[in-house]
Description:
By secondary structure, the protein is an alpha+beta fold. It contains 2 helices and 5 strands; from the N terminus they run βαββββα. It starts with a strand and ends with a helix. It is elongated and about 45 Å long.
Amino acid sequence: MTIRVYYEDTDVGGVVYHSNYLNFCERARSQLFFDAGRSPILDGGHFVAKHIEADYLKSAKFADILEVKTTLIELKNASFTLLQEVFRANEKLFSMRIVLVYIDFTGKMGKIPDSEKVFLAAL
Length: 123
């Protein structure tokens, strides 16, 4: 997913706030579903972040064009792990491993529906 850095994404010096890298990755994850004609909100539940490991390598700046790349690392019955990386051209700025778990609308963790496992495995 391609993202442009806007003024609202930066501090007074034009450097992207650290938390916005997480927002960029969240948008990219949602976009994977949208591009496939799906919604990240499923009939019986949705995915929530359980664990994140993030490395901030270099700073993105105001007006940069960034690309978020997402790769499936592991798929289990109730969770999956993604590697998400943010690049400016060929320069890696940020890297994150995120574990997402499936929960129903009562907040209870459950098995990822088979149709979603097929979709996730194709990432």
